[in-house]
Amino acid sequence: MSDMLALTMGDPAGIGPEITVGAWRALHRQGPGFVVIGDPDILTRAGGPVRVVPDIAAARTAFADAIPVLPLSLAAPVTPGHPDSANADAITGSIARAVRMAQAGEVAGVVTNPISKVVLRRAGFPHPGHTEYLGELCAAPGREVMMLACPYLRVVPVTVHVALRRAIAELDMPGIIRATRTTHAALRRDFGIAAPRIAVAGLNPHAGEGGTMGTEERDIIIPAIEALRAEGMDITGPWPPDTMFTPTARARYDVAMCMYHDQGLIPLKTLDMAQGVNVTLGLPVIRTSPDHGTAFDIAGHGTADPSSLVAAMRMAAEMAVNRNRS
Ligand SMILES: NC(=O)C1=CN([C@@H]2O[C@H](COP(=O)(O)OP(=O)(O)OC[C@H]3O[C@@H](n4cnc5c(N)ncnc54)[C@H](O)[C@@H]3O)[C@@H](O)[C@H]2O)C=CC1
Ligand SMILES: NCC(=O)COP(=O)(O)O
């Protein structure tokens, strides 16, 4: 099994280049090692010692001394903080190449730098984000599940990048069951949790208060929980969302299945944005990323914290070891 990871360039006008340099500084002695698929000049400008390499073997050799880069050309010059949709093909091309390398076994996993969804959308990119694009690249559309994890909490949003009104309308029993089965299997295979304890959030205040504050719990969430329990899962809920993230409540579960994006991501990022990692479950390739975005407001200032990218690298390497073992 390869011990190297592929790191995508992300949006070159965001903080990706500087956190890449910061992550290399944190990891170049002990690893995990990584190779960047991106523009070497942008990384040099961000302060990194950079070495252009022809392949993964050369990248492994170079990693202790410099950031190894498999070069990729940009269509437009880069000004930090000012993204340009002209670079969309290079940004998505970096992701596609990283996935091909993982599929070929050249790298143990893919770590992605942040992209801007709106910048890619303007260039015609049809996906809401990496997660769905990865499903397509792995020929497994619809199998991908987003999870965010930090040392204190794991959350899976059952509905993801849709307007809140649509998330509520689209919430259904098959969606909850699919996301929970994928999460259960991934916690066993990639995270070494033999019998995952799963907590399911309600959608409405007080988890519907017996149907007086909403009926989704009664009609959708409870039937899904009962079906999953019948499969043998250790699963509880629906829990009132306002109290299920307290320290006492969190001690009772390994993952919280959340009904919409912000229900899970707000507690996670509030608890520990610096160590938060975004993981894609359910795919044949391992993929992690920092939990934050492109941070255009501080790009090029030299103040971006690389901790989340470092945590993403470490988590991808640990997942690869667990997956290999299982
Ligand atoms: N995995 C990915 O590719 C992700 C991409 N995004 C995209 O990023 C873009 C910007 O999203 P926002 O909501 O503004 O979130 P953001 O995470 O980029 O920024 C939110 C705030 O946190 C700060 N921040 C973020 N990362 C930081 C770091 N490493 N060090 C220091 N400060 C940091 C920023 O300066 C900003 O004030 C959007 O287009 C969004 O779609 C957002 C999340 C994940
Ligand atoms: N809020 C999480 C996020 O935006 C990451 O999305 P993705 O690009 O990993 O699909």
What does this entry look like structurally?
The chain starts with a strand and ends with a helix. α8 (173-189) crosses α9. It folds into two domains: 1-144 and 283-326, Isopropylmalate Dehydrogenase (3-Layer(aba) Sandwich), CATH 3.40.718; 146-280, 3-Layer(aba) Sandwich (Isopropylmalate Dehydrogenase), CATH 3.40.718. By secondary structure, it is an alpha/beta fold. It has helices at 16-27, 40-45, 56-62, 88-103, 117-122, 130-137, 164-170, 173-189, 216-230, 247-250, 261-272, 307-325; strands at residues 4-8, 33-38, 50-52, 67-71, 109-111, 145-150, 153-157, 197-201, 234-239, 255-258, 277-281, 287-290. A twelve-stranded mixed sheet has the order 3-4-2-1-5-12-11-6-7-10-8-9, sandwiched between helices. It has twelve helices and twelve strands. The structure holds 1,4-dihydronicotinamide adenine dinucleotide (NAI) and the ligand NCC(=O)COP(=O)(O)O. Ligand LD2JLWAY binds next to α6. Belongs to the PdxA family. GO terms for molecular function: 4-hydroxythreonine-4-phosphate dehydrogenase activity; cobalt ion binding; magnesium ion binding; NAD binding; zinc ion binding. InterPro entries: PdxA, PdxA_fam. It catalyses: 4-(phosphooxy)-L-threonine + NAD(+) = 3-amino-2-oxopropyl phosphate + CO2 + NADH. Pfam families: PdxA (PF04166).
* Number of domains as seen in the coordinates: 2
Shape: globular
**Number of H/I helices:** 12
**Shape-level CATH architecture of the largest domain:** 3-Layer(aba) Sandwich
Are there runs of 5+ residues with pLDDT below 50, and where? Answer: none
Radius of gyration: 20 Å
- The portion of residues forming beta strands comes to 15-25%
Count of distinct strands: 12
SSE order: EHEHEHEHEHHEEHHEHEHEHEEH
CATH class of the largest domain: Alpha Beta
Strand order of the largest sheet: 3-4-2-1-5-12-11-6-7-10-8-9
Structural class: alpha/beta
Largest beta-sheet characterization: 12 strands, mixed
Helix content: 25-40%
What's the CATH topology label of the largest domain?
Isopropylmalate Dehydrogenase
At the fourth level of CATH, the homologous superfamily of the largest domain is Isopropylmalate Dehydrogenase
The oligomeric state is single chain
Ligand names: 1,4-dihydronicotinamide adenine dinucleotide, ligand LD2JLWAY
Function: Catalyzes the NAD(P)-dependent oxidation of 4-(phosphooxy)-L-threonine (HTP) into 2-amino-3-oxo-4-(phosphooxy)butyric acid which spontaneously decarboxylates to form 3-amino-2-oxopropyl phosphate (AHAP).
Catalytic activity: 4-(phosphooxy)-L-threonine + NAD(+) = 3-amino-2-oxopropyl phosphate + CO2 + NADH
Binding site for a divalent metal cation: 161, 206, 261
Enzyme class: oxidoreductase
